[in-house]
Design brief:
218 residues; mainly alpha
Length: 218
């Protein structure tokens, strides 16, 4: 699995398809947190919203790197569709973890804040909630599920709007609401950790659905 992740990480790096979602993340985080002096809980909610969009785009780009014949070769070499899919999930998660580090630092660079351990922990949790949810959306809207990427894009936009704006419909919506109204990061640290687990479960469901459709189509 480590070799598979290393291969996918390298392929994405050389393809440069990570640049667009990366620039989107940095640009949104910079604009949304520039000159901010409010509570870091609300600030990190803006960064988490950026992570949601970036992780979705990054996951779709990663899975769409290889055409069907090339992917078939990778599946045979790796030992099955599930192993390749899990490698894709692990690779996308690794990229999101790197972005999470950047997401913790950008608000401190562009704004004026007094930061504590609880703030950094909350910022990490918030971005993980968004990353796991965005990866789930990216999986079910990837080329493995939708052959026509125009349809995939429309479905992805609808799902992203639903998870962000649908009241209580997703861990992301609940988290954004909690963080926007929190004056102290420590107050919502425990509840956000529960949302991380819920988002991880959502990612597992998205992986299972994508695998089932992939196997059925193959």
């Amino acid at each position: 699995m480590i070799s598979l992740v290393r291969y996918m990480f390298t392929v994405l790096l050389l393809s440069q398809r990570y640049l667009a979602p990366l620039l989107l993340f940095v640009g949104l985080a910079a604009v949304l947190t520039s000159n901010d002096t409010g509570p870091l809980a609300a600030t990190y909610s803006a960064v988490a919203a950026s992570m949601l969009l970036c992780s979705t785009w990054l996951t779709m780009a990663l899975i769409g790197l290889e055409d069907p014949p090339h992917r078939s070769i990778v599946v045979v070499s790796a030992g099955g569709h599930l192993r390749v899919l899990l490698g894709s999930v692990a690779t996308a998660a690794a990229w999101c973890l790197l972005l999470t580090v950047a997401g913790l630092g950008l608000p401190l660079l562009f704004g004026t804040h007094t930061v504590g351990p609880a703030d950094l922990a909350l910022g990490t949790e918030a971005q993980l909630v968004s990353a796991f949810t965005g990866m789930a959306v990216g999986l079910v809207c990837s080329r493995l599920v939708f052959r026509r990427q125009g349809y995939a894009l429309v479905v992805a936009l609808v799902l992203l709007l639903a998870v962000m704006l649908g009241k209580g419909m997703s861990p992301v919506n609940v988290m954004l609401t909690d963080l926007q109204h929190a004056s102290n990061s420590a107050d919502v640290l425990g509840s956000t950790s529960v949302l991380v687990a819920a988002a991880a479960l959502l990612l597992a469901v998205g992986t299972a659905v994508t695998h089932a459709i992939t196997v059925k189509k193959s």
